[in-house]
Design goal:
alpha/beta, TIM Barrel, Immunoglobulin-like, six-stranded antiparallel β-sheet, 14 helices, 22% strand, Glycoside hydrolase family 140 protein, hydrolase activity, signal
């Protein structure tokens, strides 16, 4: 055993899997707008690691989890069955003869013994290792194509759902993503049966529906008994590619629509444009989304009232390496260097600011901005009882209404989404209106957050 493998083995042996302490079960907050973990506010900072189970071995998986933990991520989104021929890096198939109703399990779970380490043993290990890193696993039981092609169907869905729920229903760090990049109006009976069966066996674990691009779970499943929070996929298309959908890059509109529904349920952008992926995904030779773009999606959604945000990177979501099977979306970088993409390292600054103030009382409030623009020029605002945030993607000057938060005075500062640094502005009376001019020139990607804290001192 070489030194690197020995070090990894020692690390895995000594790291305690204190799942209940590291990742207490998630619940919906009393105001039905946010999530809590063990009774404390929980900000979902997610990463789309869709093909992790089929592409990475144990060593690579632990490297990925440790890196994302260091970067401030606390949720990974993983598909369990991408196809009915799914195998892991140890060549263990998930199913018998491609039938979701017949998961392939074997006696024992020792990876060193031939025939004693199957697909589900590896998933068990991933769930446990994620918990040890303080990370929740948002699992898609079956990608949408399986239902569309009727491999997952009305005859076998209940059996498969029962297997999944009985095996993972007690893990405190599991969240269920029903669906899987699919049209919820297609094969609805299958998705409803999957959600209903899992929820009956594992009622305390949260569940949502991951829909196809430019749609939300809420339009069909908002009142489904198994849906605890909504998820939308704002998708990968630019304003120029929007077609008939007027929302385009304005992902904050999905948040506003979801929060206007009754009964109230939390919502999140589960798949915005990925860093380093071409605009539109399937349109060749298009510009690629950059760090500034993924920051904007995160800040817009959260300022609008989302309970967190999911980030994605082209090479990470498919764990691309030279010779990878079924590589998609013009990848050009190995996943190991891609894990340090600028957007990935900057997402933590969103989480840090939101967690620094009382989270559960925060509400979107666009009335704070007196001279708002559209598209990239829009300033997104939200506030708590004694604080307010206003995010400008372009760094253009804007006018803020004061007096909406508690305190005779307000202390103002600029917060950088790029490095998390604060720049003090001034302290002044909490009344009237005031013009703010962010540092630097006005241009896309010169984004800043105005932070106001009310004070009586």
């Amino acid at each position: 055993m070489n030194a690197r493998k020995l070090m990894l083995a020692v690390t895995l042996a000594l790291t305690p899997v204190a799942a209940s302490a590291q990742t207490p079960p998630l619940t919906v907050s009393a105001n039905h707008r946010y999530l809590e973990a063990g009774g404390k506010p929980f900000f979902w900072m997610g990463d789309t690691a869709w093909l992790l189970l089929s592409r990475l071995n144990r060593e690579e998986t632990d490297f990925y989890l440790a890196t994302r933990q260091r970067q401030g991520f606390n949720v990974i989104q993983v598909m369990v069955l991408h196809t009915n021929k799914m195998t892991n890096r140890y060549d263990a198939p998930a199913l018998v003869e491609g039938d979701p109703g017949r998961p392939r399990t074997t006696p024992g779970n020792d990876p060193a013994k031939a025939g004693e380490y199957d697909y589900w043993d590896h998933l068990d290990w991933v769930v446990e290792r994620a918990a040890a890193h303080g990370i929740y696993v948002a699992m898609v039981p079956a990608w949408g194509d399986l239902a569309m092609e009727r491999q997952l169907n009305e005859k076998n869905v209940a059996t498969y759902a029962r297997f999944m729920a009985e095996r993972y229903g007690k893990a405190p760090n599991i969240v269920w993503l029903n669906g899987g990049d699919t049209r919820s109006e297609m094969r609805s009976a299958v998705w409803d049966a999957l959600g209903t069966t899992i929820k009956k066996i594992a009622p305390r674990q949260l569940m949502t529906f991951h829909p196809i691009g430019r749609t939300a779970s809420s339009w069909q499943w908002h009142e489904a008994p198994w849906l605890d929070f909504n998820m939308f996929q704002s998708g990968h298309r630019s304003y120029a590619q929007e077609g008939p959908n007027a929302i385009a890059e304005d992902n904050w509109r999905y948040v506003a629509q979801d929060l206007a529904r009754t009964p109230p349920k939390p919502t999140i952008d589960g798949e915005p444009s990925y860093e380093n992926i071409p605009h539109g995904l399937h349109e060749q030779n298009q510009p690629r989304w950059q760090a500034a773009d993924v920051r904007r999606y995160g800040w817009w959604a959260v300022m609008a009232g989302a309970f967190g945000h999911s980030y994605g990177e082209n090479h990470i979501m498919q764990f691309f390496a030279a010779g990878s099977k079924d590589a998609n979306f013009e990848p050009n970088l190995h996943w190991r260097p891609a894990i340090e993409a600028p957007g990935a390292t900057q997402m933590r600054h969103l989480r840090t600011l939101i967690e620094s103030r009382p989270m559960l009382e925060r509400v979107p409030d666009q009335s704070l901005i007196r001279d708002n623009g559209t598209r990239y020029d829009r300033v997104a605002a939200s506030r708590g009882k004694s604080y307010a945030f206003a995010y400008s993607y372009t760094g253009a000057p804007f006018t803020m209404k004061l007096g909406a938060i508690a305190g005779r005075q307000v202390k103002a500062s600029w917060y950088s989404p790029r490095d998390g640094a604060f720049t003090p502005i001034a302290t002044f009376a909490n009344r009237g209106e005031r013009r703010f001019d962010p540092p630097g020139e006005t241009k896309a990607g010169n984004d800043w957050v105005l932070v106001l804290d009310g004070t009586d001192k």
